[in-house]
UniProtKB/TrEMBL annotation:
Biological source species: bioreactor metagenome
SUPFAM superfamilies reported for this sequence: SGNH hydrolase (SSF52266)
InterPro entries in alphabetical order: GDSL, SGNH_hydro_sf
Molecular function, one GO term: hydrolase activity, acting on ester bonds
Protein name listed in UniProt: SGNH hydrolase-type esterase domain-containing protein
Amino acid sequence: MVHQSQNKFIEPIIGIPPMIDIKNIRDDWAAFTDFEAVCRQLEQYKEWIIKFSSTFNVKFINFDMKNKNIDKVEELYIDGLHLNEKGQAIMAEIFCSEMQDK
């Protein structure tokens, strides 16, 4: 879709998803999914997005909150996977900050 957007003179911006809090994933979800493997795949996906963006000169916003000096990651999630209001507010701050820089 990046190339399709560019062909229509639309400048795409790719969002790199935030980390997940595997310690607080709901038990019923953890019963059928290996979230350790999901985290490893997510890290590989993030690396791929950065490489893709660099190769094709596409802007991206990294929503990973590891470098945001957050003491308690669990305070950002409803269920370890979906962000709560505080987590979404941090994502919005990242977005606005990045858009000012771009």
